[in-house]
Amino acid sequence: MKRLYIIRHGKAEDPNFAKRDFERNLVERGRQDAIHIAQQIVEQTKFDEHTLVISSAANRAFQTAEIMCPIFQYPTNQIKLAIEIYEAHHLDILQVINKVPDHVSTLIVFGHNPGLSSLVSYLTDQYAELKTANAAYLEFPDNMTFSQLSGETATLKHVFE
Fold first, then answer.
1. Which of 32, 61, 89, 130 lies at 20 to 30 Å from 26 by C-alpha?
2. CB atoms near residue 97 (< 10 Å)
3. Beta-carbon count within 10 A of 85 CB
4. Which residues contact 160 (CB under 8 A, 6 or more apart)?
5. Helices 28-44 and 59-72: crossing angle, nearest 10°?
6. Which CATH code, of 3.40.47.10, 3.40.50.300, 1.10.10.60, 3.40.50.1240, is assigned to 2-10+22-160?
7. Strand-pair category, 51-56 with 80-82
8. Judging by beta carbons within 10 Å of its beta carbon (0-12, 13-18, 19+), is residue 107 exposed, middle or buried?
9. Strand order in the sheet with 51-56
10. pLDDT tens across 2-16, in order?
């Protein structure tokens, strides 16, 4: 069974004119929420060498990935950054997912709303609003590859909040 975790970044600094949106960092609550959600996920899932992590290159998304990945026992130096996920429409995020190699059985994507929530709804035909640090867990048939993933082809199994 192929698994997809779609994770929204943790709570970040409020937008301001002194810093570009892309450079906003997590606040303490964002760090704590990321730890809490990662611990929930790891209680239900074990990750292995067939796991891939892709993160938006924006500070707050990458920082969330850096916090969660050690809990998943995934090396932070193997996180792939994808600028295409930042401020992306759900179909643009799906294009990144569709390029994932066939040997990957579990994919974890860190990014932003509204694109991530829209992506979950598009893939599963179920409404899901991912708040900060929330994660959606989706499954799809093992004979299906990430390149074949499209609208209404996955099942929303759980939202971690």
1. 89
2. 19
3. 23
4. 37, 40, 41, 134, 135, 136, 137
5. 40
6. 3.40.50.1240
7. parallel
8. buried
9. 80-82, 51-56, 106-111, 2-8, 135-140, 155-160
10. 999 999 999 999 988
